[in-house]
Amino acid sequence: MKRPFKKEKRLHPRLSHNLPLKVAANGYDFTTTTQNISCLGAYCRINKYVPPFTRVMIKLDLPAAKAKSSNYQLDCKGVIVRSEDDASGGFNIAIFFNAIKDDQRKKISQYISRFLPAESSSPTL
To answer: Is the model's pTM score more than 0.85?
Structure first.
C-alpha cells in the first residue's frame, strides 16, 4: 500500500513581508526592508556588494500585535550567506542570524505565526 503524499514543512517557516531593516557591514550602513524573514535569518536587497561570510549588525522592527502597543526592536548579529546581483540593480543578500538571543528568536517566530494558516486538526488522507 502506498503512503499518502505529505507536504514538506519547514521547521522554521519563512514569511514574505516587508519589514524595516538596518544592516551595518564593513563600515557601511544600509536601510532596507526584508523580502522574507524567518527566525533564522532574513533576505533583503542592498545597493552595494557585500561578499558572503561578511559579519553584519542587524536592527529589525517587528510590528506590535495590537495597534496601541509599541513595535519590538531587535538588535542581533548575523553573517551574509549569499549575495546575488539583482537584475534591476543592487544586490539581494541572505543573512543568517548567528548571534541572536532566544527571546528575540521567539519574538520573530511569534510574529510569523500570526500570518500562517492555522493547523487543521483533522487527519490528512
So the answer is: no
Q: Is residue 92 part of a domain?
A: yes
The domain that holds 24 is classified in CATH as 2.40.10.220
The tens digit of pLDDT for each residue in 76-106 reads: 999 999 999 998 899 999 999 999 999 999 9
Residues 45/57/24/78 CA torsion (nearest 10 deg): -40
> By three-state DSSP, how is residue 21 classified?
strand
Buried b or exposed e, range 25-47, using 16+ CB within 10 angstroms: beeeebebebbbbbbbbbbbbbe
In this structure, the number of other CB atoms found within 10 A of the CB of residue 125 comes to 4
- Does residue 122 form part of some domain? no
Residue span of the structural domain in which 41 resides: 20-110
What grid cell was written down for 32?
Answer: 532596507
